[in-house]
Amino acid sequence: MVQGIERGVYVVDKIQFNQVIEEFIKVNNLMTHIQKRPIRITNDLKLSTSMIHLIDVIGNYPETSITELADRLGVTKGAVSQQIPTLEKMNLISISQKKGNKKTKLVSLTKYGRKVYESHNYLHEELYSSINEALESFSPDQISTIKQILEKVSYTINEYQVSLTRKED
């Protein structure tokens, strides 16, 4: 159930709600399209967007477990685990064991992985700068509200997906 909606009873104006949903779907479609296209990092290195985002999270949180990476990305452990061997073969990441826990693998960037991470951040600077400029017209309270809305939408979509998965079992 979408938060704020109870069996067709809309807390917000239905037209406004539909407009918000349409904009969300546009953003989602753009992100999906971007995720499918490989990005050239160097002349001899192309990576999928999902791999680049994984490298980004590893760069932001060194020596992180696969479970933590999956949580931060909002994907399954399996989705992260499938990419780990490829990134390791490309010498972008290294794997170590957590001290006192042989089951938990910790993932870190190699020197080469750090260069890819920095290149990715450079590529995003222009995009993030544009988004930041667009957000400058909003107050800190409004930006906080936007963040809360996105968190609630994300949570609701995740709960909906979980409920669909349960129905399939």
Automatic annotation (TrEMBL):
Query: Which molecular function terms from Gene Ontology are attached?
Result: DNA binding; DNA-binding transcription factor activity
The record lists the membrane-crossing segments as none
Q: What region holds the HTH marR-type domain?
A: 14-155
State if Transcription regulation is listed as a keyword. yes
Q: Which PROSITE patterns match?
A: HTH_MARR_2 (PS50995)
| Assigned keywords, A-Z | DNA-binding, Transcription, Transcription regulation
Cite a single Pfam family from the UniProt record: MarR
Highest taxon of the lineage: Bacteria
Q: What is this protein called?
A: MarR family transcriptional regulator
Concerning InterPro entries, the annotation shows:
HTH_MarR-typ (IPR000835), Metal_resp_HTH_trans_reg (IPR052067), WH-like_DNA-bd_sf (IPR036388), WH_DNA-bd_sf (IPR036390)
- The source organism is Enterococcus faecium (Streptococcus faecium)
